[in-house]
Amino acid sequence: MLLEPEQIILIIEAAGTFAFAVSGATAAIRSRFDLFGIFVLAFVTAIGGGTIRDVMIGNLPVNWLTDTLAITSVIAGFIFTLLIYRRMKKLEGWLFTFDAAGLGLFTVMGTQIGLEAGMSVGISIALGTITGCFGGVLRDVLAGTKPLIFQEEIYAMAAVTGGIIFTLILNFFDALFVAQLTGIVVIVFIRVIAVRYKVGLPRMNVD
Amino acid sequence: MLLEPEQIILIIEAAGTFAFAVSGATAAIRSRFDLFGIFVLAFVTAIGGGTIRDVMIGNLPVNWLTDTLAITSVIAGFIFTLLIYRRMKKLEGWLFTFDAAGLGLFTVMGTQIGLEAGMSVGISIALGTITGCFGGVLRDVLAGTKPLIFQEEIYAMAAVTGGIIFTLILNFFDALFVAQLTGIVVIVFIRVIAVRYKVGLPRMNVD
Amino acid sequence: MLLEPEQIILIIEAAGTFAFAVSGATAAIRSRFDLFGIFVLAFVTAIGGGTIRDVMIGNLPVNWLTDTLAITSVIAGFIFTLLIYRRMKKLEGWLFTFDAAGLGLFTVMGTQIGLEAGMSVGISIALGTITGCFGGVLRDVLAGTKPLIFQEEIYAMAAVTGGIIFTLILNFFDALFVAQLTGIVVIVFIRVIAVRYKVGLPRMNVD
């Protein structure tokens, strides 16, 4: 028996939130935060992007305040990190896959929420990118490191590209689930290629 | 003649805002900020937590924009710090007490505002903790240091515990002022114990 | 043929947004961010102050989501910085002028928006100062440096002074455009004097 579209989206959301929480908790442990700090960083990383989006478009109270799945996924990611931190090396492949799925889903969802709020296509894609990427920015600011996303392999550009694909399909075929899934797959695919072949955005040479 | 409950709450609010402003101003002086920077850090530390809470639940315009007592207390804390900075060592006991009272009050008030906005108990306690603790997070981010609260003795856990006690009493006895005062006292008590006996949350050993 | 008041304001807004975007992009290049990071920092610097103001007073969705001129000016500033970065030394005079104009306009506009939202005069001037100055604070936090504005020559005080002049003229003469222009000119003038004569706010001596 196949899953319904809504169920597939929920599973991706749970996995993505979990992976974002793990990435926040891991960064907190590396910065030698205590238990509470680890939990907060897991939380902020997982819900930060969506919170910034909701605040900016006035979608208040922000989403996570009433989203039990998100909070449960964050707590699961937090506990998982505490249990498994020393052996995490072995799981990096899984975590990378989850993280890419989360980036894909959050970006597509953020773009969709922007369109539904009556924003222009460009602004909606920007909101999707913020949803996918700015949790990680908050994580790095709180951990006291320069935001990784501004210095890394193709991360935000994967989000932007996926957002564009999503809005194109939605516009021309009016098929929401196909657009969502294609957007997510494109983002995961770009992330895999970027990391596998170490592709990065150019930098300016500073004299 | 005894004070009314509302008056007691106002006095605690003024003392707590004052102490938070002093802690921000002190951090700014240590980071060698100029006069304006000292004022901004005093302000952000004192009103940051409540502002983040108000924004997230959509309680806009945020509280401090119309709260004369808060602004007056911040200005008093700012001026006090400038006058007394060199002799502050002697006053650390007072400032610690005020800070603990502020943490207590802000947490209890934030929890109450969350409940009044129709949030679940868990989310309301989280909002209370954010109200009490995130002004200090903003202070440390702006001062360019790692957030103290993520690395310190029991600070946020005092807030969480006080928030739980507050909601329990409110739920079972329906006595708002008793619940508020007990929540505040519990938080102050935990802070005193934690600092006196140097209790901290466990950390992960990083290899 | 003379320009209409609205046109003059739009030209100042475009120039100011452009200059703020250039300052963000430049900081990002110095922090060795990639292309996406440079764009985000240009964007955040230019729209950050107005976004914080809009969020706090509940003016949502925030302004830039529907402001094509702002977004176009940011993109122009971003591309300009990429093209001209190596020869930027020669343009510092122009960029300083644009930045001062932007500070002036954003402060005056933020103050006006505060007054229109029914805030008190003092709070409105604070909102104006936030509008003018906090994009730069976000820029420095994201770039991982201490906020320049808290350690620099008179920057925020220029904004505060201009905001006061603006509200005084508006109050006593009820002439919006005269008040706007005078406020902007005062801010630009103070910036020029401060930089020319290296005037700064006093600091506390830390033992």
TrEMBL record, chains A, B, C:
UniProt membrane topology term: Multi-pass membrane protein
Q: Which InterPro entries match?
A: Gly_transporter (IPR005115)
The compartments listed are: Cell membrane
Family statement drawn from the similarity comment of this UniProt entry: Belongs to the UPF0126 family.
Alphabetized, the UniProt keywords read:
Cell membrane, Membrane, Transmembrane, Transmembrane helix
- Respond yes or no to whether keyword Disulfide bond is given for this record: no
Residue stretches in coiled coil? none
Name the chain's protein: Glycine transporter domain-containing protein
Q: Where is the Glycine transporter domain?
A: 11-84, 97-169
Superkingdom is Bacteria
Transmembrane regions: 6-28, 35-52, 64-85, 94-115, 121-142, 154-170, 176-194
GO CC, sorted alphabetically, is: plasma membrane
Organism per entry = Rhodohalobacter barkolensis
